[in-house]
Amino acid sequence: MEQPETLERDGLGQSSGASRSPAKHHQTTTLVMAWAVDRESRRPVYVGQLSREKTGLTCDCVCPACGARLQAVNAGKMPVVLPADAPQSIAAHSLRASFFRHHNHQQGPGCKSRVAELAALRLLAEQGLIEIPAPQHRGQFHGLSKTLYFHDSTGDAVRAQVISRRYVGEAIAILTLDNGREVGLVLRGHQDVGDLGTVSAIITIQVDDPDVALMSQEEILARASISPQWMCLGRHWDDERLQAEADEAARQKALEQLDADPGTMWLPKGATPKQASESLLHWAVKEVLAVDGKFQAPGYDETLTLADPRGGLLSQTIHLDGRMLQITNVRDEQTRDGYRPDLVCTATDGTGNLGEFELLIEIAVTHKVGADKLERIRRDRAACIEIDVLSMRHGGALTLAQLRRLVLDDIASKRWLHHGRLDAQRQQVRQSLATQQRAISQRLRAEEAQRAERQRAAADQRAREEALDRVSQQWASSLDGTAVVQEYLHLLSCAWRDEPLITRNGLAWKVLDFEPYVRRHYPQQAVLTTKLFNGRGQLAWALQTLQHHASPDTSALNWATFERDFMQHGFSRDRDQWRGLVYRTVEFCNTRIDPAQVDAASKRIKQVKASLAAGEAIYARNRELDVALRLMFPGLAGLLDDEFGTIDYSIKVRAEQKARAEAEDAAARTEELLQAEARLVEQAARDSKVAIEMLIFQLQWNPNFNLPRSEEQAIGYAKLQAVPTSDHEVIRSAFVARQSGVSFADWLISLGSNTSDRTDEVSNALQAAHLVVPKHTPVPTVIATSRRRPRSRR
User: Is the model's pLDDT at 668 over the cut of 60?
Assistant: First the structure.
């Protein structure tokens, strides 16, 4: 096998050295081709299949585009192996060892493209299998609204075995397939193939890449398998069928948009779009009902009213449930008694309530059924439903699918215009309303009569009550103050015992109505009509209860219940201060207490009385209500007059207790002072004796009787020493005693307590007057330790 070699010079006589620029090299490769056409047979020739003998013009090939003779350069040689550092802009297949080039003429711009398509045609025709592209056809339809509707129909791609082939010139190849059909492969620009006879399909070969002219057979076939655009289907045996399908599908699209004549609908010549639309909708509804055979009928509600004798309206509702109707025998308009319905059909109610009946269907496109036509339908007693197609259009055109769904399922766009069942219900409702109206009128008349009778009875009762009130008021006005209060207490007692409020003379009263008479007699005692006196569980209730159970004709008092009611209902602020009075009333009235509770009651009463006797104020009452209490409870006057248990008594007891305590404190303090004075006197005596003994021990008369010679001289000496005048008498007494021969001790003792308190002053005065002098002897131990210097008193 011949080894690849490096091309030293190309067919144009230029060196292939490394110094050649890539741009120039690319220009060289664009002027060569790997394919040509044999001049005699007009069949494509690949340069790689030529032998060395076919080099140059001996190849006998021409250019299929311009017809010029071609040279086969380096025929029979292997492809050039490019250097590893060759520019990447040069494709690996762009420079080969052998190629074709024009001999004398300049290569034209379409030569390579024509050669490429011719080579592709021949190679595709020579394959054993062929891929026929899927045919495609677009159909279109002009709707009634002048809108264009399109649809694309696509056939099947075919992969078939080629059993024979023949060529018509160099631009056409006729292939016979194993299914008996013939397929024509035609180069671009040769579409006029009317003389091909029974060819079932025509495929146009169009190659837009001129570099295909440089490819080998294998490369062209590989490129064709991934470039389906090379094979353009010009004719196919399914063209008529596919076109018809596409046209019909486009028409169906228009029909789905209700924008086409369905073919079964007659339209008058020159019909307007509005007339066409209305007729088309009528047809569509009829078609839906005929095909689907069912129809969702709406419900029906109508409220009938009649004047209510009481004012306002009486009302009842006629109701018919929505239901699915089975539809048969759908037919177009038929003229009836002065009107023509849009559709007539036979309807059957699956529930059995309505049965089978003839149903008229009115289709409202631009206007609904008028009053005149509606009256004719009702007079004809025909069942009729109106379909409002306009209400079905929500924001755009209505499609056939939407119309089908709305006609079959929607109830919002439908309404009953008439049905025999509705007439019967309407008549029944009117009769029922009339019956109600008569019954209400009769009841109102009866109620009016009863009301008048009640008013007469009430007027009679008011007259009797007013007469009785006048008698009661006259009686109450005739009572004095004491009687008024007693009747008032009687009414309160009835109220507290839940008995009828009747005075002792048999007249019925209310406590509130009687209170003004109490206030009229005792305007200053308004407390009588307050809660403290008229409330259950309050003070007056407690006193009345205790008095009531004091009678031998009544049962014994349940003390526990009495305590509970009084504690619960009484004013917390006043409860304790009135408890003293209440508990003393038990003893005062000799209230009969349940024997089982006597001990508990006695113990509690003793505790309260002990507190009152001790002067404690917790249970002591204020006497400001005593006047009112005497008015209401005259039997308690003795108890109320007793000062015991009042605030005054409490104050008095506490004052006496305070006075006794103060007297006792004063006596104790006096006794203590006397004892203290006695102790002081006794101590002073002892202190005086010790002080005198100390002076006697320390001093003696001055032995010099000439100093001083007289009292005046002694006082003069004292004055020189600033001795107080009060001590001058002591000096005189001492001078006389010394002159008289009285001993110093006797004289000092004779002075008594006056001297004992001021021994220091006496000692100083005598020494200043030179009447005494120190003995200059030590002080005896006993006397020194026992002597206490008395405090000087001024």
Answer: yes
Contact status, residue 417 vs residue 385, Cβ threshold 8 Å: yes
Q: Looking at residues 109-113, what average pLDDT do you find?
A: 78
556 falls in which pLDDT band (50, 70, 90)? Answer: very high
Identify the residue with better confidence: 440 or 759. 440
Count of CB atoms situated within 10 Å of the CB of 578: 22
Task: Mean pLDDT check: name the lowest of 18-27, 534-543, 724-733.
Answer: 18-27
Locate 722 and state its tokens. 């600033």
Spatial separation of the C-alpha atoms in residues 395 and 593, rounded to whole Å: 96
Look at residue 96 in the predicted model and tell me its pLDDT: 52
Distance of CA 222 to the CA centre of its chain: 71
- Of 199 and 297, the structure prediction assigns the larger pLDDT to 297
Do 318 and 301 meet the contact criterion of CB atoms below 8 Å apart? yes
**Residue 128 to residue 159: CA distance in whole angstroms:** 11
Write down the residue that tokens 């169009």 correspond to.
206
How far is the C-alpha of 732 from the C-alpha of 730, rounded, in Å? 5
Query: What DSSP designation does 502 have?
Result: B
8 A C-beta contact, residue 368 and residue 386: yes
CA–CA gap between residue 747 and residue 736 (Å, rounded): 10
Entry pTM: 0.39
- Strand locations in 308-452 (E): 313-320, 323-331, 343-349, 356-364, 383-388, 414-418
132 or 514: which leads in pLDDT: 514
Give bridge partners of residue 502 from the DSSP assignment.
508
Phi, psi dihedral angles at 202 (to 5 degrees): -125, 130
Q: With the CA atoms of 681, 684, 690 and 696 taken in that order, what torsion angle do they form, in degrees rounded to the nearest 10?
A: -100
- How wide is the angle at C-alpha 157 spanned by C-alphas 151 and 161, nearest 5°? 160
The pLDDT confidence band at residue 478, using thresholds 50, 70 and 90, is very high
Please compute, for residue 733, the number of CA atoms within 13 A of its CA located in the half-sphere on the CB side. 15
Tell me the H-state helices in 296-380: 371-379
What would the two tokens of residue 135 be? 């045919």
* Residues forming a β-bridge with 176: 164, 182
Judged by average pLDDT, the poorest of 262-271, 477-486, 495-504, 683-692 is: 262-271
Query: What is the distance between the alpha carbons of residues 165 and 151, in angstroms, rounded to a whole number?
Result: 36
Q: Is 227 exposed, middle or buried (0-12, 13-18, 19+ CB in 10 A)?
A: middle
Strands 356-364 and 383-388: parallel
Q: So what's the pLDDT on residue 225? A: 58
Confidence bin at 791 (pLDDT 50/70/90)? very low
Diameter over CA atoms, the chain: 212
Tell me the HSE value of 7 on the side-chain side, using a 13 A CA sphere: 23
Residue 21 backbone class (left: φ over 0; alpha: ψ -120 to 50; beta: rest): beta
Note the pLDDT tens digit of each residue in 340-364: 888 888 999 878 778 888 888 888 8
Residue 68 in contact with residue 62, Cβ under 8 Å?
yes
State both tokens at 512: 């509130």
Instruction: Give the single-character DSSP code of 686.
Output: H
Residue 488: Cβ-neighbour burial (10 angstroms; 0-12, 13-18, 19+): buried
Tokens coding 416: 């009953």
Q: Return the closest-CA partner of residue 409 out of 576, 294, 256.
A: 294
